[in-house]
Specification:
Distance between the termini: 22 Å
Helix content: 25-40%
Number of helices: 11
CATH architecture of the largest domain: 3-Layer(aba) Sandwich
Structural class: alpha/beta
Strand order of the largest sheet: 8-7-9-10-11
Order of helices and strands: HHEEHEHEHEEEHEHHEHEHEH
Mean pLDDT: 88
Radius of gyration: 20 Å
Length: 253
């Protein structure tokens, strides 16, 4: 249940096209639906502008399928994160309309909303190709949340000329999600070049002293560049969700 559907429902009750009992039936799963193993928050889209998202790890394929079915049955989109290829194949056998994005390990049901005319652009920047799974999780999530997204990959500080060759694109973005592992320096460089918010995403890519992304996380938290906020290690989804909320403010009213 999102704002537009609730508005339509109440308008139909007011006009007499729908009686009160029918409206109550439509609203009976609010604010959540208890499946025993999960309580689906059908109110999430009404509060946040996007339905509850399913975190794949730790759930069985059967559980994921049932949650996705209940979300789509209520007229919402279903987004599942951290889905491996074998899981997606099993899910597709039951949900043939399921779309799978292997680079970002995401699965989705339901068409994404069209970005509002005049809304800003989210740019996802990655330091290296090894950071692509996290970068694609961010990019695809932002797209499925109804945002215009551009990508700029493999432009890390080891070859800074690759980044500087794309200054026009960097400065055209409204919000930048910058993904980097190893020493995690790229967000600082980008933030020093633009006057827009930068969401830094450390990845677990790197050799031993990177401590599975901890070194990049600490470097980003200690950045001297202004305008940077940092999400957790490998959390492309979290960066996209934050960027999508910020970007909503740029759409013409």
């Amino acid at each position: 249940m999102d704002r537009a559907r609730l508005h339509d429902l109440l308008s139909r009750v007011r006009s007499g096209a729908l009686d009160v009992e029918q409206a109550l039936d439509a609203l009976k799963t609010l604010p959540f639906e208890d499946l025993g193993f999960a309580r689906i928050d059908h109110h999430r889209a009404l509060r946040k502008g996007f339905p509850e998202v399913v975190f794949g790890p730790g759930k069985t394929v059967r559980q994921i399928i049932e949650i996705a079915r209940r979300l789509t049955a209520s007229g919402q989109a279903a987004l599942i994160t951290r889905v491996e290829g074998a899981q997606a194949q099993e899910m597709r056998a039951v949900l043939p309309d399921l779309r799978y994005y292997p680079d970002g390990r995401l699965a989705a049901l339901g068409e994404p909303p069209i970005p509002p005319a005049g809304q800003g652009m989210i740019l996802v920047v990655s330091a290296g190709t090894a950071d692509l799974p996290v970068a694609e999780e961010a990019a695809v999530t932002a797209e499925l949340m109804g945002n215009r997204v551009e990508r700029l990959y493999d432009v890390g500080v080891a070859g800074i000329h690759r980044l500087l060759n794309n200054l026009e694109l960097l400065r055209a973005a409204t919000i930048l999600i910058v993904v980097a592992g190893m020493e995690g320096a790229l967000p600082s460089v980008v933030a020093g070049l633009v006057d827009r918010p930068v969401i830094a995403v450390p990845t677990s890519v790197g050799y031993g002293a990177s401590f599975n992304g901890l070194a990049a996380l600490l470097a980003m938290l200690n950045s001297c560049a202004t305008g940077i906020t940092v999400v957790n290690i490998d959390n492309g989804f979290g960066a996209a969700a934050a960027a999508a909320l910020m970007n909503k403010l740029t759409a013409p009213s």
